[in-house]
C-alpha cells in the first residue's frame, strides 16, 4: 500500500507548522468545484482515516467563537429565532438565493422541452436551434448542480453552528441555575433538551428557507402551466388549496400531540431518575412492581400521543401521494372536457414535466410545515428552560472577584469566610436563617 504523509503529525514537538483548513488557501476554481477536498478523499480511498488526518475547524466554526457571538445577542433579544436570524441571517439569505437559482434552473427544462417538441410538430424543423437549446440545458443543469452542492454545504455548516450555539447556551444555563430551578428541572428533562429539542431546532434551521422558496416554486410552476393549458390550471390550483388546507389541519394535530408527548416524556424521565436515585429503598421494601406500574402508565400516555402523531402523519403521507395525481387529473380533465381543446404532444409533455416539478414542493410542504410545528414546540420548551432563575453571583465574592482593598483587609484579619446580612435556606419563601452575620478565621 502506498504510504501517505497527508496532514501527518511530526514526531518532534513543535517541528511542524500549525495545520490549516485547506479551504483557507484554496483558489476560486478549487472552491467552486470542491477540489480542496480531493486530497482527503484520495487518502480515504487508500486507507482508513485517522483523527489526525481530519482538518482542524475553521475559526468561525469553532464553538467558542459561535458561542461568543450568539450568547450576547440572545441575552439582548431573549428570542431564539431572532438571535439565529441576527447571527446567521446573511448566510441564510445567501443559501436562499442559491436555492432560488436552483428552482429557476429546474423550470428551464420544461421550457426547452416545449420548444423542441413544438419545433418537431411544425413543418420546418430547425436542427441548429434545437441543438442550441439542448446545449443551453446542459449548461443550466451544471449550474444547478453547483448551486445545489454549495447550498447544501452551507446549510450543513449552518446546522453545525446552530448546534454549537444552542449547546453552549444550554451548558451555560445549566451551570448557572439556582437551587429552586434545579428542583424544578431534573437532569432527565435537561437530557431531553439535548437529545430531542436541540436536534429538532437544528433540523428546522436547515430547512428554514424552504418555507418561502416552495411557495415561490409552486407559483412559478402554476404560471408556466397556465401558459400551457390555460385556465384549467386554476382547477388544479383549487385542488392544491384544498389539499394544503387539509395538511394544515394535520400539521396542527401533529404540533399539539408533539407538545403533549414531550411534556409527558419529561414527567417520565423525571420519575425514572427519582426511581434510580431511591433504588435501594425500593428494593428493600419490594416496591418494584408498584413503581414499574407507575412508569408503565406514564409511558402509556406518552405512547398514546405518539400513536396520534403517527396517525396524523399517515394522513399526511396519503395526501402527499394522492395530491399530485388529483391535480394532474383535474387539470387535464378541465382542459379537454371543459375547454374542448386537444392535448397536443407539446402541451402534454410540457404539462407532465411541470406537474412532476410541482410534486416535490407539494410533497415537501406538508413535511416542512409539520417540522416547523415541532420546532416551535421545542423552541418554546428551550426558551422556558433559558428563562429559569439563576444564581446571583454578585452576592458571593471570591478572591478573584473582590476588589483589592477589601481583599487586603480580609487577608490582614486572616478571614476565611465572612457573611453579612445573609439569608440561607433551600426555599426562598422559607429561609432557615435570616440576616446572619458570621466571620470564620483561619
From TrEMBL:
PROSITE patterns listed in its UniProt record: ABC_TM1F (PS50929)
Any one GO molecular-function label of the UniProt entry: ATP binding
Membrane topology: Multi-pass membrane protein
Ranges that cross the membrane: 88-111, 131-151, 201-225, 231-254, 309-334, 354-377
Region (Disordered): 1-21
InterPro entries per record: ABC1_TM_dom (IPR011527), ABC1_TM_sf (IPR036640), ABC_transporter_C-like (IPR050173), ABCC_6TM_D1 (IPR044746)
Swiss-Prot/TrEMBL keywords: ATP-binding, Membrane, Nucleotide-binding, Repeat, Transmembrane, Transmembrane helix, Transport
Protein's recorded name: ABC transmembrane type-1 domain-containing protein
Source organism (scientific name): Aphanomyces stellatus
Amino acid at each position: 500500500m502506498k504510504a501517505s504523509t497527508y496532514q501527518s503529525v511530526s514526531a518532534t514537538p513543535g517541528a511542524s507548522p500549525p495545520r490549516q483548513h485547506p479551504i483557507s488557501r484554496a483558489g476560486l476554481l478549487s472552491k467552486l468545484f470542491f477540489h480542496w477536498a480531493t486530497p482527503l478523499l484520495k487518502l480515504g480511498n487508500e486507507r482508513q482515516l485517522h483523527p489526525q488526518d481530519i482538518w482542524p475547524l475553521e475559526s468561525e466554526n469553532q464553538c467558542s467563537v459561535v458561542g461568543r457571538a450568539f450568547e450576547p445577542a440572545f441575552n439582548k433579544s431573549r428570542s431564539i429565532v431572532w438571535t439565529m436570524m441576527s447571527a446567521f441571517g446573511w448566510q441564510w439569505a445567501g443559501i436562499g438565493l442559491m436555492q432560488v437559482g436552483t428552482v429557476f434552473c429546474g423550470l428551464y427544462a420544461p421550457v426547452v422541452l416545449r420548444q423542441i417538441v413544438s419545433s418537431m410538430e411544425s413543418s420546418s424543423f430547425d436542427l441548429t436551434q434545437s441543438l442550441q437549446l439542448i446545449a443551453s440545458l446542459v449548461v443550466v443543469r451544471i449550474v444547478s448542480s453547483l448551486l445545489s452542492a454549495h447550498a447544501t454545504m452551507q446549510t450543513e455548516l449552518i446546522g453545525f453552528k446552530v448546534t454549537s450555539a444552542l449547546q453552549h447556551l444550554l451548558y451555560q444555563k445549566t451551570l448557572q441555575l439556582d437551587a429552586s430551578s434545579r428542583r424544578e428541572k431534573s437532569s432527565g428533562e435537561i437530557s431531553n433538551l439535548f437529545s430531542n429539542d436541540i436536534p429538532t431546532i437544528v433540523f428546522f434551521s436547515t430547512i428554514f428557507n424552504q418555507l418561502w422558496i416552495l411557495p415561490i416554486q409552486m407559483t412559478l410552476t402554476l404560471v408556466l402551466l397556465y401558459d400551457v393549458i390555460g385556465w384549467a390550471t386554476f382547477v388544479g390550483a383549487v385542488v392544491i388549496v384544498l389539499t394544503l388546507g387539509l395538511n394544515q389541519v394535520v400539521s396542527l394535530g401533529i404540533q399539539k400531540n408533539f407538545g403533549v408527548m414531550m411534556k409527558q416524556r419529561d414527567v417520565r424521565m423525571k420519575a425514572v431518575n427519582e426511581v434510580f436515585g431511591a433504588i435501594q429503598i425500593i428494593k428493600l421494601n419490594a416496591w418494584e412492581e408498584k413503581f414499574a406500574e407507575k412508569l408503565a402508565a406514564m409511558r402509556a400516555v406518552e405512547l398514546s400521543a405518539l400513536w396520534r402523531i403517527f396517525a396524523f402523519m399517515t394522513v399526511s403521507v396519503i395526501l402527499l401521494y394522492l395530491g399530485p395525481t388529483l391535480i394532474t387529473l383535474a387539470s387535464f380533465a378541465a382542459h379537454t372536457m371543459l375547454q374542448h381543446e386537444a392535448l397536443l404532444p407539446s402541451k402534454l409533455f410540457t404539462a407532465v414535466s411541470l406537474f412532476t416539478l410541482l410534486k416535490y414542493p407539494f410533497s415537501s410542504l406538508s413535511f416542512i410545515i409539520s417540522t416547523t410545528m415541532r420546532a416551535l414546540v421545542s423552541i418554546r420548551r428551550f426558551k422556558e428552560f433559558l428563562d429559569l432563575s439563576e444564581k446571583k453571583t454578585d452576592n458571593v465574592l471570591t478572591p478573584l472577584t473582590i476588589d483589592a482593598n477589601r481583599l487586603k483587609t480580609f487577608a490582614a484579619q486572616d478571614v476565611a469566610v465572612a457573611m453579612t446580612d445573609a439569608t440561607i435556606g433551600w426555599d426562598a419563601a422559607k429561609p432557615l436563617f435570616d440576616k446572619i452575620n458570621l466571620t470564620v478565621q483561619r
